[in-house]
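G., the chain you wanted modeled:
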Amino acid sequence: MALMIRFEHVSKRYADGTTAVDDLSFEVREGELVTLVGPSGCGKTTTMKMVNRLIEPTEGRILLDGDDISGIDPVRLRRRIGYVIQQVGLFPHKTVLDNTATVPHLLGVRRAEARARAAELLDLVGLDPATYGDRYPEQLSGGQRQRVGVARALAADPPVLLMDEPFGAVDPVVREHLQTEFLRLQQTLNKTVLFVTHDIEEAVRLGDRIAVYGQGRVEQFDTPPAVLGAPANDYVADFVGADRGLKRLSVTPIEEGDLEQPPVVHLDDPLPRELDARWAVVLDSTNNLHGWISAEHARTAVRKGDTVRDHARRMEAWLPVGAPLKQAFATMLQHDAGWIAVIDENSEGRFLGVLTPSGLHEALRRSTAADARDITRAEVELETVKSLVD
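Predicted structure as C-alpha cells:
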C-alpha cells in the first residue's frame, strides 16, 4: 500500500521555548484512518495543522504523496486536503447546499456542477438535499451541521482528510451515530484520514492505527488491539485505562473459530419429541438462520403431523460474523440471552454457529495473546483450570 503522509523528524518549537512537537516520525498509508489521541496540549492538533501548513514546522519535513509540502503553495496545498473542525465553521449567510459547494466553486467548477456535486455529498452523509439544501446552518442541529462539514470537506474529492475533534461538540448519542456513519462513509470513499481526538474509545473505534501522544511525542503507534492488549509503556497503559480489556471488545471481531455448534433442525422436519439439548437452532432448506425451538415446547406441544415450522420462534439475538465482541456482549444483555446466533451475511444468512459467554471470553483472550505473540488467534492455546490440573 502506497504512503500518503510521512513525517520525518518533525519538531515545532515556539519563541518562548515551548516544544509542541518533538522529533515526530511516522507514516500514514493511502486509505488508512489514523487517530491521534492524547490529553489537551500534547501536540496532536499541532501535528495535524502542520500537514496543511496552518502551522509551519521548526525542523524536519512532511511529505504528502511523495511531495515535500514546504515546496507547495499553502493555498494550493489546502485545496488538496479536506479539513473538518469541531465547530464546523459553516458560513451562516449561505445555504447548506452553497456551503457544501464552496470549495469546488473556488476551484473554478461551474456553479451548477458544483451544486450538483454538493447535492450528491449531502445525500451521501444522510441529508436529503431536497429537504436540507435550502436551509441555513442555524436551522440545523449540531449533528446535522457536522454532517454538512464533512460533506463540504469532501466536495473537491481530496485524497487526504484532516479531522480535528469533529464530533466533540455533540451529545453522546449523536456522536456515536456520527461515528457509525463516518465509518460507513470511509468504507465507501477510502480516504487517507488523520483524526484528532482526546477520547481513547473514539480513537479505538475509528482508527486503523492509533498514535498515542505523550507530551509532544508519540508513545505508541500501532493498531487498536495492540495498543489495548500490549501498551508500550506505563504512560500508555495509564492513558488507555485499567478497563482496556473491555475496550478491546470493540475492536475484536467474532471469528468462526469462536463458535460452538448446537443441535439444529430444519423447518420442514417433523417436530421432534426429544432434543439432545434444551433448545435447537431452526434453519431453512438452504441452512439459513430462521429461528429456534425449545426442547420443552417440542416435547409438550407435539401433535400428529406437526413440523418444526409450526412451532419455531423468531431469533432475536443474532449477529454477522466479523461483528465486534462488544456488540455480541451488548446483544446478549439486551435479549437476556445465554448465546447469540452468528451468520454469514455474504451468504444470505447462512448459519455458522453460536457464541456463548465463555466463547466470547476465550475469543478475547486468544486475540490478546495472538497480538502479543504475533500469531493468529487459531494458533493460540489457552491455559484453563482443567489444563492446569491435568
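Confidence is low (pLDDT under 50) at residues 385-390.

Shout if anything looks off.
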